[in-house]
Amino acid sequence: MKTLLAIGDWKDFDTFKKVYKQRKFFRGSNIQVKATNYWSVIDQKLPEIKTKEIIIFLCFPFEYWDKYIEPKKYKGIYGNKSFYTKFIKFWKEIDSKLKNFYKNNKITYINHPKNLATDRDKEMTKKKVAKAGVLIPKTYNTRKVKDILKLLENGRKLFIKVRYGSMGKGITYLEKGRWMTNFRFRNGKILSRKSDYGWTFINITNKTRFLSEILKKDIIIEDAIDPLLIKGRKFDLRMYVFKDKVLYTYGRSNDEKAVTTNISQGAIGEKLSFEKTLPKKQLEFAKQSAIKAIKALGLNFGGVDMMLCADKKKAEFIEINAFPGFPRVRRYNLSRYFIKDIIDNYGDNIAIRKATIDDFDELFKLRLMSKKEELKYSNTLKPITKSKHYYREYLQFDLTKPDRILFVAEDRNKIVGAILAKFFTPLRISRYHKEGKGHISNLFVDKEHRKKGVAENLVKSALEWLKSNKVPHVSLEIHMDNKAAIKLYDKMGFRHFTVKMVKEV
Ligand SMILES: Nc1ncnc2c1ncn2[C@@H]1O[C@H](COP(=O)(O)OP(=O)(O)O)[C@@H](O)[C@H]1O
Ligand SMILES: [Mg+2]
Fold first, then answer.
1. Distance between CA atoms of 334 and 171, rounded to whole angstroms?
2. What pLDDT, in 10s, does the model give residues 47-89?
3. In the chain, how many domains are there?
4. Structural domain of residue 92, as residue ranges?
5. pLDDT at site 485
6. Is 238's C-beta closer than 6 angstroms to any atom of ligand 1?
7. Which residue has a Cα nearest atom 7 of ligand 1?
8. What is the pLDDT of residue 233?
9. Which of 229, 261, 272, 378 has the greatest number of C-beta atoms within 10 Å?
10. Which ligand ends up closest to the CA of 120?
11. Nearest-angstrom CA–CA distance, 415 and 369
């Protein structure tokens, strides 16, 4: 068993609650689910977890953010560097507190906390994804009013965004004859809105005083992407990426004349079928870019915003969200697919196959482990240290002789169990002399992978192989004290047949 520990706030109506509420989709896997909040991490009042391995899913810390990073009484300009540095510090603390509390467990993060603030820095994010080969809008380093005016004069359309912003807040759009911002501007000062809402755009065309003020802030300046229009509307695509896969593409469209495609600014979330109306190759290009972008930031899961270009070929990167809100789309349950992929990637995923000589080293280790366990039942075996070379030789036979086969159970490239099946010709007086008899031995599954039906599947594979070799009868031997194995073979229809008796003489 493993534990998925989801950490978030109950105030987070979105990802955290959705995944936790849908934990029934973990049923049947070897992952149990627990949830806690960030205060419990900070105060070290976390739930005890008995499984060795803990997979940690970190959701957005709304309460902490609202209390310490962007409080209501926050006076500074929205999206400045303190947002970022405080956030980095927060994740460092969370990481060390989790590692301290669960020092006897093995922690695997879905997204490592050290990478969870990077996406908040739009400049660094763009650099990293561009380096990975993702197309980004051209960026300008100048902070001079006259350079900007010249760019506009030359027909450029520009976005100026606060470097550490999000949610469509603090955005300025400039084109010749049309300047828009959703900051407020009073008495020569740029002002932020008090809440997340109401960041509507106002017209500030040719207010160079505003321009000169915004250029003094920590900002990024980039070309506006010339967007592909669908039914006269512009749109961006939020691509939910998990590892190498785009789980879901959520289109958000707005009027062609609108500045952004943020839902908070009037865009609407498109239906599931929207994806089908898009040029296929271009969509695929965007998906591949999104996967690259996630990797470039060291994330396993995230939302990447891509915009398809008017050329019907390319797609450009807008931003990454390490905490993408899950879309509200009827009949599409993203958490369910997300959970399925968590199970595929972090749960047990055991497959049975025939062993080859390449498996020798791994199998040898496994065999020694199993013999060590057998010593518990048997006092007639030599200590392993004295018989290692024999075991080596036997395994060599088992992997090469044509009368036998080894099956292995593999959990994502790691061998976790094995069984040996062979056939032989019994004496001429046996009624099976002609067809031969089968024998099963060396069944072993490592401790961590027991009680999941692995042994049963190994036995089934062995029986199928014997059957395909037309062997009508199979036997095996087992120590009386090996109760678990006896139970399994009983269940599979093996009968107790002879009794082996021993005595010291
Ligand atoms: N270079 C660009 N070209 C076209 N549209 C853009 C560009 N940059 C931003 N936008 C629009 O503005 C929105 C907000 O920008 P974004 O970088 O996502 O900031 P935020 O983090 O505030 O959401 C985007 O969803 C998109 O609609
Ligand atoms: Mg955005």
1. 29
2. 999 999 999 999 999 999 999 999 888 877 888 899 999 999 9
3. 4
4. 2-117
5. 94
6. no
7. 224
8. 97
9. 261
10. 1
11. 12
